[in-house]
Amino acid sequence: xxxxxxxxxxxxxxxxxxxxxxxxxxxxxxxxxxxxxxxxxxxxxxxxxxxxxxxxxxxxxxxxxxxxxxxxxxxxxxxxxxxxxxxxxxxxxxxxxxxxxxxxxxxxxxxxxxxxxxxxxxxxxxxxxxxxxxxxxxxxxxxxxxxxxxxxxxxxxxxxxxxxxxxxxxxxxxxxxxxxxxxxxxxxxxxxxxxxxxxxxxxxxxxxxxxxxxxxxxxxxxxxxxxxxxxxxxxxxxxxxxxxxxxxxxxxxxxxxxxxxxxxxxxxxxxxxxxxxxxxxxxxxxxxxxxxxxxxxxxxxxxxxxxxxxxxxxxxxxxxxxxxxxxxxxxxxxxxxxxxxxxxxxxxxxxxxxxxxxxxxxxxxxxxxxxxxxxxxxxxxxxxxxxxxxxxxxxxxxxxxxxxxxxxxxxxxxxxxxxxxxxxxxxxxx
Length: 430
Description:
Structural class: alpha+beta
Mean pLDDT: 82
Distance between the termini: 64 Å
Strand order of the largest sheet: 6-7-8-9-10-12-11
Strand content: 15-25%
Shape: globular
Low-confidence stretches: 1-11
Largest sheet: 7 strands, mixed
């Protein structure tokens, strides 16, 4: 297979050629994650591949698998925003309805999973299943709503299975995701299961199609993970720009995975600096940090990895109670950015360049009020032509360094500066 050739020859152009000449890869480019979820749905629904799909389930779920039966179960795509799910069917008065959700698969081919997102999915499933149980009860047992609670207490309802299908072998929330009840399956695992059980597919065309799919996954997975292993933290942030992945229109995937590796390295450095009791909490939004009133998350570190305006983003944040959030931000190959997220001021509605003066005055007030003037000089912020802000507050910032440092030095700078802020805030609160 192509991955063997890549390992043997270590030739980048072989990887590019392998994928450019693979029709399945070319078809996947329009939607990436959607394509792979649709491909899995096709395996489940087509009679020629259903035996293979059942084998996949039994391999992933082990003894906890369930008998996938198209007579009483259905595959759904994007049902309630779940990438892939298997649900029971409910027939009531000749009307077919969606019943209990038996399996949810979250597909992360071009992005990274977070514990918070996956736990929200589980809560949503619990609520949907309760409604489905009520409908099932009325359909089969003809009981009214008042009797339902007793029925539910005595029933042995099947538990929903959760699978995370991911391209990344390692990521920030991996252990937390496992503890939340998700089975983690890599795309390498997926491809191996497909390839090892192709004999279950009798149709020649179908088998050739699946072989091409496996070749695509093997080549992509092998190359991207081999390159991730070669990352040197003494390198410049230019490594985020990969010509091969740019050629294949997949540089966004590469950037996200690289930035997660850097985030893991930053986590190790933070543990060395502060100990295990002060490890960053992974968040997906600033509102998670601020909470209800901007006080409950004090004395905690927060980290976010994202992708914004075509570039990967790594942020280290610290709450300044009742004022806002201090931010250290590395985006792409730009110099390290320092900023302050004012959570109290409403979004400004500036329409003219002349309003910049008012914005700068507000910037000065916020920064000096938070005692960050020495770190975020207002005069540098004033050089901006227009205000910058995000959805949860007003974001004031400037570049901390004039040049881009290598990865290791940048991560050290993030730790040094977050420590300065921690000291400032604690002194202020005494």
